[in-house]
Amino acid sequence: MTTADLPTGEAAPTLDADELRAWLRLAHAKGLRPLALRTLLGAFGGPLEVLSESFASLAEIADARAAEAVLAPPEEIEGVPFDDYIEAAFVWAAEPGNHILTLADATYPQALLTMPDPPPLLYAKGRLELLQARAVAIVGSRHASPQGLEDARRFARVLSDAGLAVVSGLALGIDASAHRGALEGATGTVSVIGTGADLVYPAAHHTLAHEIAREGAMLSEWPLGTPARSANFPQRNRLIAGMSGGVLIVEAAMRSGSLITARLANEMGRDVFAIPGSIHAPLSQGCHRLLKQGAKLVETPEDVLEEFGFSPATARAASTAARRARPRPVSASWASARADEADSAIDGDASRVLDALGHAPATLEILAMRTDLDGAALQGALLQLELSGHVAALAGGRYTAVERS
User: Fold this and answer.
1) One-character DSSP codes across 265-314
2) Could you tell me which InterPro entries the record lists for this protein (predicted)?
3) 336-387, pLDDT tens digit by residue?
4) Which letter does DSSP use for residue 405 in this model?
């Protein structure tokens, strides 16, 4: 492990090489559920002790399936032979800002320990102290409206200024806006990702991910090299809920993955907040469903802060303390920097499409008529504009320009 370049001077956890190898073997053992491993660790004390026990002893404490998983020879991890993976994990953890945290580490997120089945091992990047901060999750649609994007960013910035870490999942849409708003605030943000900690998904968020790794924290329970798989993201959502004292849903359709996060948060005893919207807007339907089920309606960031016990005076005091404690405050607006970077890349067909959008949403057919672009060129230009944050896709196959600040 490494203590180099820790922003707060907090010591990173140190583990004996054999002990860390044992943790990695058990954490990634196929068929060994986190709850069963936690039970075994509680009974025998540590990963080396668990691995030294007999089948009968392990089966007596957990069950035969868990015992078989513990004693089975280690298999490949993400297609990499076990010994090679261990070597790669040590190399990754030796890089500045990278950490492998186990249930035995004081820096392991305490909020996750209230879950019945916390991951036995986490890969973290960035500011470890953020993993212990009071936190609120902000999640929502990947195809958010411009208003939803602005709401997510504004709520995140105010909540971060008040002293709350903002947790989200690095997805397109609401997640990205929440991360950016929190980076502009005093406290910062934690990104819980559904891939290995050495990968970025979606690729469009490569720069944002690096910004979070420097100014905030990133967290993954998946082995290094794990690509984006649809089955991983509901489990990722479970950690987002577990890290937070409450979850705010900004926009969500009826089948949104954000509703999974809200359900998991409710099951864990966390608060669920939702922003209402128009009864005609598909992205409001998920929020309205949550409100009918008992979620707390919020119209301003102060509504959330009140539920967290912040009065206006304590929110101001928390903001001042957070800004003083933050080791490297953001010196300029991340969103503005991203906009400048994106603006320099917009030209040709993309510029024509952006000019053609105007102030009202438009369909592909309307844009094709206004720009005289064929289908492939139009789709390519729209993709470039979406990835750069200039255009958002709306329900019904419409597109709208995103107001730049």
Assistant:
1) HHHTT-EEEE----TT-HHHHHHHHHHHTTPEE-SSHHHHHHHTT--HHH
2) DprA, DprA_WH, DrpA_SLOG, WH-like_DNA-bd_sf
3) 334 444 444 566 888 888 888 876 778 887 888 888 888 778 888 887 887 7
4) -
Which residue in the block uniquely carries the two structure tokens 């500011």? 127
352, 371 Cβ separation under 8 angstroms: yes
Amino acid at site 394? L
190 Cβ contact partners less than 8 Å away, ≥ 6 residues apart: 130, 131, 135, 165, 166, 167, 168, 216, 217, 218, 219, 243
Name the DSSP class of 188: -
Neighbour order of strands in the sheet with 391-394? 362-363, 398-401, 391-394
Tokens of 142: 């990947």
Q: Whole-angstrom distance between the N-terminal and C-terminal Cα of the chain?
A: 41
In whole angstroms, give the CA distance from residue 24 to residue 270.
30
315-348 confidence digits (pLDDT tens): 666 656 665 565 544 333 333 334 444 444 566 8
Q: Any residues with CB less than 8 A from the CB of 75 and at least 6 apart, and which? A: 30, 82
Token pair, residue 392, equals: 């958002």
Predicted TM-score (pTM) of the model is 0.76
Q: Determine if residue 103 is left, alpha or beta; phi over 0 gives left, psi from -120 to 50 gives alpha, anything else beta.
A: alpha
Euclidean distance between CA atoms 179 and 98, whole angstroms: 20
Backbone φ and ψ for 329, nearest 5 degrees, come out as -60, 150
- Six token digits for residue 403: 């107001």
d(CA 240, CA 231): 15
Q: In 10 A of CB 35, how many CB atoms? A: 14
Biggest CA-to-CA distance, the chain: 74
Tokens for 65, please give them.
Answer: 């399936």
Q: Which two tokens stand for residue 101?
A: 């945290």
